[in-house]
Design brief:
The protein is of the alpha/beta class. Helix content is about 20%, strand content about 30%. The strands form two sheets. Strands 1, 2, 3, 4, 5 and 6 form a six-stranded mixed sheet that branches. Strands 7-8 form a two-stranded antiparallel ribbon. Strand 1 and strand 2 form a beta hairpin. The N and C termini lie far apart (about 30 Å).
């Protein structure tokens, strides 16, 4: 199994479509056997699902994520755990232990850039000119 996490400085990056890197974990029999940082090379929302699919990722852990990206991941057969924040390593450990705290209904709906103070995946609303919402 492969698990990808949106990544920045050891933590879950708060917005799937703007992540510059993923941390990808190889898992065998419930234990992490390897990990690597994968650059997104500036890929946007739509191309990221293809990038993860090419890496043979089974599970994505992220902060906020838009509906279009969710649909692209579902089409690629990648299970999504959105609305996660904190350490990437701890998120993966929690996932493997069956105790990952995530919000299955988190959505980021916007068009445009993020400003300072953006908090997708942390359920703070009215950030960066768009809404992160639980529906």
């Amino acid at each position: 199994m492969k698990i990808a996490v949106t990544y920045e400085n050891g933590n879950v990056f708060p917005h799937f479509g703007h992540t510059q890197q993923f941390k990808v974990y190889d898992v065998l029999e419930g234990k992490v056997t390897g990990e690597q940082i994968v650059d997104t090379a500036g890929s946007g929302h739509g191309a990221l699902a293809g990038l993860l699919s090419a890496q043979e990722v089974d599970v994505l852990i992220c902060g906020g994520i838009g509906t279009g990206a969710q649909n692209a991941l579902a089409e690629a057969g990648i299970r999504l755990y959105g609305g996660v924040s904190g350490s990437t390593d701890e998120a993966v450990k929690a996932f493997l232990a069956g105790g990952l705290k995530y919000d299955p209904d988190v959505r980021c709906s916007h068009h445009g850039g993020h400003g300072e103070g953006h908090h997708c995946g942390e359920n703070k609303h009215g950030c960066g000119g768009h809404r992160c919402e639980n529906i």
